[in-house]
Amino acid sequence: MRIVLLGAPGSGKGTQAALLVKDLSLPHISTGELLRSAVKAGTELGQKAKAVMDRGELVSDDIMLSLIEQRLSQPDASEGFILDGYPRNLAQARALDALLDRLEQPVDEALQIDIDVEMVIGRIAKRAAEEGRSDDTEEVVRNRMKVYLDQTAPVVDYYAQKGLLSRVLGEGTIEEVFQRIKGVLQIRSEN
Asked: How far is the C-alpha of 55 from the C-alpha of 161, rounded, in Å?
């Protein structure tokens, strides 16, 4: 199964992806981790990404898509994957679909974890306090939410129009959310 995880910052995507990895035995493909690994390994793409990041700029869609393509070509991704952190906008969603079509690995499920904005702010503030992160102030979090709503939320509609979107309430315990996700995936695999 090829899954794209969607949701606002702090919605629990990373936590749920980790549980899905164990449950489904699929690799978790986090674009942030791909970037860090490529930079650390000093690969050609990693060097290009590092140069961009060192200038304080966002890594281009072309570089990200190339990193994703390299990762998807590894044997453990042949049966599926859980993609987290990408696509973040419509252009990336379309480019990802084109890549996956070329690789004959189309998305099976786009899973949106829905959560109340104020709850997200509370979660992130708690995480910031627990982890000593000073970059997660309320102002920063509210700005990230605005960026998400402006740029990433339209990706949800994109997958809905393709008939691939399922929505799961991201409130409750981690296990309650996970059980909802498993239920959605069970229904999808039966159809």
From this structure: 37
